[in-house]
Design a protein that fits this description.
433 residues, alpha+beta, Jelly Rolls, 2 domains, 20 strands, disordered N terminus, glycosidase, Glycoside hydrolase family 16 protein, signal
Length: 433
């Protein structure tokens, strides 16, 4: 706090040389009580050209954030270990760019189901059972989520899903988990998001799942915990699904195998075959800092692939709604059909969003370091010895007004704690060729 406000004062002093200082101050004050991404955008515009350099982050600086409920949390800036041990059983607020006037070749992939805009939540079921991953959350119905302000379609037309921010709870916080009512066997799932949950205690995921887990298979498209910045895509199957190689080059992918080539849930302690992105903007604060991007999961006779396209690098065929995956670069993750028939080990999938807190993975690595984005353990950052203790006592840190996005202008590596998904669209295609 004490480092941040002198920088604001310095910037405003410089602004006194130009017309409109009072208007900027007034606007900034009003914006401060609104969505912090909007505040960050307004201040970037207001301070543009004045803050020529950004001070580097420091390990001994503390930041204070006041949540919308008035609860304050003091935390030091950020700095785990291995892959997920279990299965789940802004720069901008706009989604994919509108199709350009440049002609795009026709595609054999046709829309089967589409979710966006004011009707985004139509066609999703709200999961209300206990969290299968033992997280500190209680998933709630659509009516409860609406009345509690946990879901909305924001002014940008994006779907927002949040976690409860009550200052203190005795057990679990309310959260949202949604599942498409439509199912599919094979296809192309394209998801555009501008923001995802991140920070100590969070475990967000976008994934697809079949019946009678793991018999129907599971495909984790986006997943990670705490302050991780590199996405991990994973498949979980019945015994018999094997990766033919451990090397990225042999698998024709840009990501890196985390552990086992055996994708069986039962034989790997539920870890499956995890592949970690080499991109630090593919998950968490890195993803949010670039305004997100597009993830695509391709499931066809060749196997299963996951692609990531950062904002500004989304193929024009995706933006035009005429995907041409055969022309895309190598995927982030690839599980070829060589020793894993994708229609034998995967069937009747639905797409799922969820945000759990703590749970089997985030809790297990609470004191860990060594994974991209997690240079300092969450135990050290928060001062809490366990994930559940932090989550139960620190509701203000999960407040929408407490995203620390404003700090990213000055401290790109500062601790970010935010529990909202902001999704522009999900489109599920089927190949008609």
């Amino acid at each position: 706090m004490h480092t941040f406000f002198p920088l604001i004062a310095l910037a405003l002093a410089s602004l006194s040389l130009v017309q409109g200082k009072s208007l900027i101050l007034t606007h900034a004050h009003k914006a401060a009580v609104k969505h912090s991404a909007g505040l960050a955008r307004d201040l970037r515009v207001a301070f543009g050209g004045i803050l020529a350099t950004q001070p580097s982050s420091s390990s001994n600086q503390n930041f204070y954030c006041v949540g919308s409920d008035g609860e304050g949390v003091t935390m030091p800036p950020s700095g785990n270990s291995s892959s997920s041990p279990t299965v789940k059983g802004n720069a901008t607020s706009t989604g994919m760019a509108a199709p350009s006037s440049t002609s795009v070749a026709s595609s054999s992939w046709k829309v089967a189901d589409s979710y966006s805009g004011q009707t985004f939540f139509n066609g999703w079921g709200f999961f209300t059972a206990a969290d299968p991953t033992d997280g500190n959350v209680q998933y709630v119905s659509q009516s409860t989520a609406q009345s509690a302000g946990l879901i909305e379609i924001n002014s940008d037309g994006n779907a927002v899903m949040r976690v409860e921010t009550t200052p203190q709870v005795q057990t679990n916080r309310q959260s949202v988990r949604i599942t498409t009512q439509a199912t599919f066997n094979g296809g192309l799932v394209v998801m555009d998001a501008v923001h995802m949950p991140t920070g100590c205690g969070t475990w967000p995921a976008f994934w697809t799942n079949g019946p009678n887990w793991p018999a129907g298979g599971e495909i984790d498209i986006i997943e990670g915990v705490n302050n991780y910045t590199n996405n991990q895509a994973t498949i979980h199957t019945n015994p018999g699904c094997i990766l033919p190689s451990t090397t990225s080059a042999s698998l024709n992918m840009s990501g890196t195998l985390v552990a086992s080539t055996d994708c069986s849930a039962s034989q790997t302690g539920n870890q499956g075959c995890g592949i970690r992105s080499n991109s630090s903007n593919s998950f968490g604060s890195g993803f949010n800092g670039i305004g997100g991007g597009v993830y695509a999961m391709l499931w066809d006779n060749s196997g299963i692939k996951v692609y990531f396209f950062p904002r500004g690098s989304i193929p024009s065929d995706i933006s035009a709604g005429a995907p041409q995956p055969q022309n895309w670069p190598a995927p982030m993750a690839d599980w070829p059909s060589t020793d894993c028939n994708p229609y034998q080990y995967f069937n009747t999938h639905s797409a799922i969003f969820d945000t759990t807190l703590c749970g089997d993975w985030a809790s297990a690595v609470w004191t860990g370091t060594g994974v991209p984005g997690q240079d300092v353990s969450c135990a050290q950052q928060t001062g809490f010895s366990t994930c559940s203790a932090f989550v139960q006592a620190s509701g203000g840190s999960f407040s929408e007004a407490c995203k620390f996005r404003i700090l990213s202008m000055f401290y790109p590596t500062s601790l970010t704690v935010t529990t909202d998904w902001e999704v522009s669209s999900v489109v599920i295609y089927q190949n008609t060729s």
